[in-house]
Amino acid sequence: MFLKPQSVFKTGQFVSINLLNLSKTMEKNNNEYALVTGATSGIGLELAKLLANDGYNLVIVGRNQETLNNTAAELKSFGVKIATFNKNLFYPDDVYSLYAELKVNNISPSVLINDAGQGLYGKFVDTDLNRELDIISLNITAVIILTKLFLKDRVDKGYGKILNLASIASTSPGPWHSVYHGTKAFILSWSEAIREELKDSGITITALLPGPTATDFFNKALMNNSKIMEDWENFSTAEEVAKDGFTAMMKGDDKIISGLKNKLTVAMSNLSTESMAAHRMGEMQKPQSQKD
What we know:
Blueprint (H helix, E strand, L loop, with lengths): L4 H6 L22 E5 L4 H12 L3 E6 L2 H11 L6 E5 L5 H13 L6 E4 L14 H26 L5 E6 L12 H20 L5 E7 L7 H4 L17 H14 L3 E3 L2 H12 L2 H12 L7
Parallel strand pairs: 1-2, 1-4, 2-3, 4-5, 5-6, 6-7
């Protein structure tokens, strides 16, 4: 359930909302909002641009207010309203308070983009457990909470769209990046399950499965020494992935694997045993310094 309204104000977080006052001559004639997490960079930013270009007002969420302000300034050129929320989605309380503040401001998004997510590179025995628990909280817990609150708000209205970032990492075990692969496997399975539950509700759920994409994700995940980075020049662009995801979401498709090469990778994984798929992925992701 939502946090009590007073909890929104006592932390001082409510002042973080910044609804840009665009001139009425620039605003598009649309009362629909799209909520986008991870909207300040990469695939999330490109999805936000596509939504704004389609006339959706935007709710964007991030941990850095200055970055949020800069992103909002970029997006306002599309002539839509932008609401920024300074929230840390690693913390469930921030996820709940985000939706409480939306309710206070009479904003009921009809589109939810669960884009925010992180990974951590290394052998599981060596990696930081607290960091991995944070990643599970961001990649899974925050997505579940936002989706639950979105659905509670939208089911009675009879329409809405959700796009969940699942990654081709969801289709095979991922040595050297095991927790990230595990979280994305959950997101894909769970998205397909609740899509079936909601098939007569007017609300669609689409899973987007990009492959390696030229964003800051790998730097944040400490993957710069991974062998997978040797193919950086052939990575998909965030724009390409966002277009595939946006198109599939608007059509109401169940999922979309972005890029032909990634479709082939998933097909190979589907034909392999789990141990074979794990070995292949391990070879792709092991450190560049490690001998073959």
